[in-house]
Backbone:
């Protein structure tokens, strides 16, 4: 039987991404993504919990995320779970800790990128400079 390792998350960006480079000089960033879960408790009342996910994005996609995303942006992440094992740092080296993280294959922006927000702010500022006289309609011409 075939296996599958797939993660699909839709959530909001919780902190500004920062561009970093690996030891092989490959660009990457970590996205802190918030998702919410809702369920009914034993008294039939709705409960809600926010989960935070650490997503690693590599290459040009990481650069675009850093350039375009702002806190609160809605994203869809398509990726997979990865594990990293390292010694726990105790006296006995026989123990280790495993860390599970998400590696992104694709990040889809579900809200407009930052550049679009900035362009719209510019247009709004320019539109404030329009005077009412600029909006007057020319008087209709009367045929002879």
Residues:
């Amino acid at each position: 039987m075939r296996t599958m390792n797939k993660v699909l998350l839709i959530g909001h960006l919780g902190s500004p991404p920062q561009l970093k480079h690996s030891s092989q000089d490959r660009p990457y960033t970590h996205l802190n993504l918030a998702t919410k879960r809702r369920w009914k408790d034993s008294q039939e009342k709705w409960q809600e919990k926010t989960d935070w996910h650490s997503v690693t994005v590599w290459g040009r996609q990481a650069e675009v995320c850093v350039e375009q995303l702002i806190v609160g942006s809605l994203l869809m992440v398509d990726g997979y779970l990865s594990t990293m094992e390292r010694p726990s740092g105790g006296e006995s080296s026989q123990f280790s800790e495993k860390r599970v993280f998400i590696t992104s294959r694709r990040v889809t922006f579900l809200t407009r990128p930052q550049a679009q927000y900035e362009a719209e702010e510019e247009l709004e500022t320019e539109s404030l400079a329009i005077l009412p006289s600029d909006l007057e309609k020319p008087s209709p011409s009367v045929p002879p």
